[in-house]
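Example with several molecule types.
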Amino acid sequence: MDTSSPTVFVNGELLKLYMGRRVRTVVQVIRNEGGAVVGQSTDNQQLTVKGPNQSVPVMHFMEVIGVADGPQSIRAEICTDFGSNFDMASYNGLCKLANGQFKNLFL
Amino acid sequence: MYANHYDGGASHFHGGGFMPSQATQTPDQAGSSKTRSSTTSTTVPLTIKQITEAYHLNDERADFLIDGVEPSLVKLLGRVLNKAERVTDVSFLLDDGTGSIEVTRWVSDSFDTDEMTKIENGMYVVLIGKLKAFQGKRHIGAHAVRPVQDFNQITLHFMECIHAHLDNSRKATAVPATTSAMNDMRAYQTLNVGTGASGDIREVVLSVFQEPASLARENGLHVNEIIRRLGLQEQKIREAIEYHVEVGNIYSTIDDDHYKSACNG
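Resulting structure tokens for the full complex:
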């Protein structure tokens, strides 16, 4: 894992601003489609996650760390099962703050 | 150690022993201490980016300044990488998405080793430790490392970082008493302006105050006496008196109309 570049906290809306960059987000798994997972982002957009570690069960929350390769798609490097109890609204708020007023603390 | 159990509910939230022992209030603020005791250490939740950008005060003492605060302890949350177990210590790299930093956890008894065996690469952990620098490179000496079990803690930690940052920044920019500076400024400006007529009046007024007879008077001189002596307009004399009070040459005694020279003549 490349530890030198920071990963940006994004939601569906912010993902398109960081094309080609390492991002991190949490989605709720909706379904598995072959090699990709379709998930709902913290701001209710549908994102597609390609890559390994697709063993997160449906309806669980999954953290994705990877490269944004489309306005609604991430090529994942690491996926982590965040369980079934995760506050999407707070995470969404954090994404907005970390990219807005407090960007200097994160990036 | 934390023997004050008179507050039954709050004792559940002592933060796993990471709260400073004098903390008996705000149990929900685990990690970002705002305790009032002056002897407690400050624990500040931080992102690694904040650490890499912190202002390093002094190479020997390894004190850092972040948002105007010198934290004794820092709280970090991130993934464990490159865990290496040695005889006396366990070290790893902590990556929280904003940067990465080397962490060392010294293990001196079985409690420590048990704590560290649970930690594996790729795992999210919370740690409390001391920020240090050695030859320009920063690293953490961890006092405690715990796995994250509820992932909402990740959101919470970064929210705490933002909150602590806002709090400390606000304190750092709290406006100190600028009135004395303003007075000096004004005095300086009036000094520049005080050439010509008003300058002369001031000098004359001051000289009256500094006469031995005036100095001998316990309550100084009344403004009207000055007016009578000099035969000048009251307004101008009051202005001169005001100027001298500001720069400290004279001071008011029994009321606003009596002034005396501050110099001993």
